[in-house]
Write a structure and sequence with these properties.
Number of domains: 1
Number of helices: 2
Largest sheet: none
Structural class: mainly alpha
């Protein structure tokens, strides 16, 4: 029994260029694609590697490259975020210290200003009270001076009356002496002269009493005047002390106002420095945000690359699984072909045993078909 003749070679399109293994360091050709029963390539992605070792090596190389890229991006992100975090912490500390100093300066300046205003108010009240007491003392002194003037006028009037009474008494005495000289001639007028003398003596005594009363009133008015003058001097001294105290308080108020202005200027400088620090912090924050955006963009790109590589890995795993399925199918085909070959060899051996070596099959060509 002769073997069937091989079918004639079919003419078709030219075969593509030979493809090589894509694994690093391997340049071996790739195996031909698996064909189905009709001789057409089976579905699935074409193989990129010559065997599983090259596929595993390529996977490890890609994974190492991806790890290097991700680690480098993370290291750069950490290196960029570290100084920004430290600068932000330092800015927070400086801002807290400046805020505390500004609050303390404002509180101190406000307390000093309030104390100075209270002291100035007290000084103004004390000066007003001192002026009022001085005015009252001056009024009392003026009244005492008026009373003294009235007493002095009364004393002067009493002195004038006493002088007049003395003059009248002297005139009466002269008249009496004249009357005495003329006693012999003027006996009739003696009684009148004696009566006039008694009247003059009585008037003199009354004028003397009035003079003594006026002197006593003058002395009392002088005493009261001296008392009022002493009170006026004391009041003036107290007013001078109050004015000096008011001047000192005014100086303290001016000094406190100067310190408050200095504190306000310092506060303004602190506010300006705080505004500059805030502007610098805002600039650093914007830089930080820009760097963070760049890092996020780079991380997104790395994630996209990783996602693409994971997709490639999944596709390669699917291709690997499909290739394994193809290998299993080829192995099954090889096992079936081996079984068929064993069956054919068994039939041939049985045919040889039946016909014997002396009666060979004329179509066999004197030998076993291979």
């Amino acid at each position: 029994m002769t073997a069937p003749a091989p079918p004639p070679a079919e003419t078709g399109p030219e075969r593509p260029a030979e493809r090589r293994c894509a694994a690093p360091g391997c340049d071996r050709p790739l195996p031909p694609p698996a064909l189905d029963a009709d001789g057409r390539p089976k579905g699935g992605r074409p193989a990129k590697y010559c065997d599983d070792r090259c596929r595993a090596a390529a996977f490890r190389a890609r994974q190492a490259a991806q790890s290097t890229v991700v680690d480098g991006a993370l290291a750069r992100a950490g290196a960029l975020l570290g100084p920004l975090t430290e600068a932000g912490q330092r800015w927070q500390q400086v801002l807290a210290g400046l805020t505390a100093q500004l609050a303390a300066a404002n509180d101190g300046a406000l307390a000093q200003l309030q104390a100075a205003e209270a002291a100035a108010e007290e000084a103004r009240a004390a000066a007003a009270a001192a002026d009022q007491r001085a005015h009252t003392a001056e009024q009392r002194a003026a009244a005492a001076a008026a009373a003294a003037r009235t007493d002095r006028q009364a004393r002067e009037q009493a002195d004038r009356d006493a002088d007049a009474a003395t003059a009248r008494a002297e005139t009466a005495a002269a008249a009496e002496r004249a009357a005495l000289r003329d006693l012999a001639a003027q006996q009739a007028e003696r009684a009148r002269a004696e009566s006039a003398r008694d009247v003059a003596i009585t008037a003199h005594d009354e004028l003397a009493d009035r003079l003594r009363a006026a002197q006593a009133a003058t002395e009392q008015a002088g005493t009261e005047l001296r008392t009022h003058e002493r009170l006026l001097a004391e009041t003036r001294h107290e007013a001078a002390e109050q004015r000096a105290r008011a001047d000192r308080l005014t100086d303290r108020l001016a000094a406190a106002t100067g310190r408050a202005e200095t504190a306000e200027a310092a506060a303004e400088r602190l506010r300006a420095e705080l505004a500059e620090l805030r502007a610098a912090a805002e600039h650093q924050r914007r830089d930080h945000d820009a760097r963070a955006d760049r890092l996020r963009t780079e991380l997104d790109r790395v994630r996209e690359q990783a996602a693409g590589q994971r997709a490639d890995l999944a596709a390669e795993r699917a291709a690997h699984a499909a290739a394994r399925d193809q290998v299993k199918g080829l192995r099954a085909d090889v096992e079936r072909a081996r079984d068929q070959l064993a069956a054919a060899e068994a039939l041939l051996h049985a045919a040889k045993s039946t016909h014997g070596p002396s009666d060979p099959d004329p179509d066999s060509g004197g030998g076993r078909a291979r």
